[in-house]
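I am going through a labmate's work and have reached the protein record below. What it holds is a sequence and that sequence's fold in token form. Please read both lines and tell me whether the tokens look consistent with the sequence. Do not assume that whoever made the record got everything right. Thanks in advance; the entry in question is below.
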Amino acid sequence: MQDAKIQKTKPSRGKGYTAGSSCITNIVINNKEAKIHLDSGAFCTFFGKDYLGMIYTNWQETLMPIEDIIFSSASQKIHPLGILEAEMIFPHPAGSIRLKVEFVLMNNCTSKHFILGIDYLNIYGIDINNHKNRYFTIGENKRQKFVFPLEKGEKRMIQTLEDMIRRFCAYGLEFKDSDGFTHDWCTLIPELELAYRTSIHT
């Protein structure tokens, strides 16, 4: 234990809670675009009644019964109404994948997207890679990577960095350093990332 190596990659002190990213991705279900959260902390696959009208009509006709049990979330008890079987498509340029799942329909769930729980993550072998370029794979084909869409904050960061790069490049073309060289990308990018992360922005 004494010779255990410490990982060098880490967030700034006191900022660990800001390093997380959600596992929400896009799917097509019932010929409509929707979002689904790949949630390994969820015991089962489900979605809320309020979200149902966006996807299904006449859902009462296909609702399968469920045992009279109560599910618990982090903040409340949620009550199941039944089970709905559905096919969802994960789009991919190299070939989309269609999965058949059974969603538990919850009466008082406030989630604004589908939740794919640990049950179907295990059934279909969905693995989430949390390295720098986050992605997930489905089944045995680990070469076909499904990339998570950028979140609003990440899109805003890219736009801000692009603006800062333009400003720095304009500065570099006009002014030279002590060695007579203008700024280049190799030196700009780390400095810009540091400047962005340490600046106050909304």
